Amino acid sequence: MKIAIYPGSFDPVTSGHLNIIQRASRIFDRLIVCVMVNAGKKPMFSLEERVAMISKVVADLPNVEVDSSDELLAEYARRKGGCVIVKGLRAGSDFENEFQMALINRKINPDLDTMFLTAEHQYMYLSSSTVKELASYDVDLSDFLPEQIIEDFKKRVSTIHQGGNRK
Ligand code: ADP
Asked: Which of 15, 43, 109, 130 would staple 74 via disulfide (CB 3.0–4.6 Å)?
């Protein structure tokens, strides 16, 4: 059974992420989308919220599961028996960093390969940060976020803007 892991911050999951998930789920027998805790990033959404949003958008993909971890990715992959890491590659900006991470992961776990899927052209410039910036304005988000989470996203953003319980 070919298992792949798609790691990321998913703060929040975007249509670009979902496109990678759908394509990878057709290539592998089982795909684990894993929200990784990154001490360097201060997320807008809690780990539980990010997992819940991804679970909502992958509900119709039976071979996709959602998880979270604060482990080193190479160790997590070893524990899960995952032999391939899937990454999405956007125009220019992702390459340098992703290439470096792929090499480091392979150094730590020599059985671990990284496979890159090129971003779909309409999502090439889409990132979670862009969506968070747009959230302050009254913009139609349907080109950027999976429709199942747009309302959740807007509600959460308005809570934050009202100075509410930011997690
Ligand atoms: P971001 O860079 O938006 O904070 P993540 O850390 O959640 O995203 O990204 C997880 C993975 O998804 C990375 O491999 C990243 O390159 C990829 N990715 C992010 N946005 C897109 C997109 N619009 N299209 C394809 N891949 C993407």
From this structure: 109
H or E stretch including 46?
none
Cβ 87 under 6 angstroms from ligand 1: yes
Tracing tokens 């919220």 back to the chain, one arrives at 49
Q: How far apart are CA 55 and CA 47, in angstroms?
A: 12
pLDDT for the residue 41: 79
115 Cα–ligand 1 center, Å: 14
Write down the residue that tokens 């070893």 correspond to: 78
Dihedral sign, Cα of residue 122, residue 59, residue 79, residue 128: positive
Dihedral sign for Cα 133, 135, 137, 142, please.
positive
Check residue 146 and report its DSSP letter. -
Name the phi and psi angles at 153, rounded to 5. -65, -50
Beta strands in 42-167 (DSSP E): 64-69, 84-89, 113-118
Token code pair at residue 84:
């391939």
Q: For ligand 1, is residue 8 a contact (CB within 6 Å)?
A: yes
Taking only the tens place, the pLDDT of each residue in 131-160 is 999 988 888 999 999 999 999 999 888 887
pTM, full prediction? 0.93
